[in-house]
From TrEMBL:
Function, as annotated: A mycothiol (MSH, N-acetylcysteinyl-glucosaminyl-inositol) S-conjugate amidase, it recycles conjugated MSH to the N-acetyl cysteine conjugate (AcCys S-conjugate, a mercapturic acid) and the MSH precursor. Involved in MSH-dependent detoxification of a number of alkylating agents and antibiotics.
Manganese found in the keyword field: no
Domain of life: Bacteria
Protein name: Mycothiol S-conjugate amidase
Gene Ontology biological process: mycothiol metabolic process; mycothiol-dependent detoxification
Chain segments annotated as coiled-coil in the UniProt record: none
Cofactor(s) the protein requires to work: Zn(2+)
Protein encoded by which gene: mca
Source organism: Nocardioides cavernaquae
Cofactor note: Binds 1 zinc ion per subunit.
InterPro entries for the chain: GlcNAc_PI_deacetylase-related (IPR003737), LmbE-like_dom_sf (IPR024078), Mca (IPR017811)
Family label: Belongs to the MshB deacetylase family. Mca subfamily.
SUBUNIT field: Monomer.
């Protein structure tokens, strides 16, 4: 039997820190298992605000581009991944009513076919079997997250097509495409209930008050990766993004013990596959491992 081709996983994210807040425990688990994980970050996060009061000090916001690069470097060490920047400029979160127009030249305003080219190149050179990105709503409606979805889906399919982007390397058909569903309503409900039960303030109470049930959306989850043992690694990677993550804020309001007991997995939606796999799955590489017939 020929030796198993090394497993490779590519995550495409909008900003530095997204790789540590979405699917990061799965990342750490796969890295521990020997999978080669590559993160692609579409923008430099230049328009992110300083969201951690401890970092709101002189020298930070003025140098946010360099600061966020250094934070990303620390996070990728912690997660054990390699990473590339696509080099686009953060579109920022449009605030106001009506919302202001997006800034000239930002990622969200790029033509999808043009913005996909550098990603096609990376897919063809890294040759991942599995690619992840956001759902069509962006996971949350930041213009860069929606654009990340558009660009990733375009590049995933175009990378396999020899007629598309002929100067961007040898065609590569990745076998599976997933969307992240990390912050789903059933998870928020389960964690909220557990927090109330032990008498702690739930960071989800406010969100849940207006979060309309959408069972059809929740049913889109096909894959739950059991990665609770790696929640600590995820948290350390998140904390490396010091300008974005307040250690006393939302991200750390739920004790790890509660998370591990109530929801010890990260959730994904398999949207495209050319290998046989049985749903629901517990592994992004289901159907691709030696002896699985894939
Ligand atoms: Zn983001």
């Amino acid at each position: 039997m020929p030796p198993q081709e090394p497993l490779r996983l590519m995550h495409v994210h909008a900003h530095p820190d997204d790789e540590s807040s979405k699917g990061a425990a799965s990342t750490a688990m796969y890295v521990a298992e020997g999978v080669d994980v590559h993160v692609v970050t579409c923008t430099g996060g230049e328009r992110g605000s300083v969201l951690n009061p401890n970092m709101d000090r002189p020298g930070i916001l003025e140098n946010i581009h360099e600061v966020r690069r250094a934070e990303m470097e620390a996070a990728r060490e912690i997660l054990g991944v390699t990473q590339d920047w696509l080099g686009f400029i953060d579109s920022g979160w449009p605030e106001g009513d009506p919302k202001p127009p997006l800034p000239d030249g930002c990622f969200a305003l790029q033509d999808v076919a043009v913005a996909a080219e550098p990603l096609v190149r990376l897919i063809r050179s890294f040759r991942p079997q599995v690619v992840t990105t956001y759902d069509e709503r962006g996971g949350y409606p930041h213009p860069d997250h929606i654009q990340c979805h558009n660009v990733s889906v375009e590049a995933f399919h175009a990378a396999a097509d020899p007629e598309r982007y002929p100067d961007a390397g040898e065609p590569w058909q990745a076998s599976k495409l997933y969307f992240h569903h990390t912050f789903n309503r059933p998870r928020a409900i389960a964690i909220n209930e557990a927090m109330v039960e032990i008498g702690l303030e739930s960071p989800y109470a406010e969100r849940l008050a207006t979060w309309q049930p959408d069972p059809a959306w929740d049913d889109r989850i096909t894959t739950r990766v059991p990665c609770g043992d790696y929640f600590e690694v995820r948290d350390r990677a998140l904390l490396a993004h010091a300008t974005q993550i307040d250690p006393d804020g939302f991200w750390f309001a739920v004790p790890l013990e509660v998370q591990k007991r109530v929801w010890p997995h990260e959730d994904f939606e398999l949207v495209w596959s050319d290998v046989e796999t049985e749903l629901p799955e517990t592994d992004l590489f289901a159907g691709l491992r030696e002896g699985s017939g894939g």
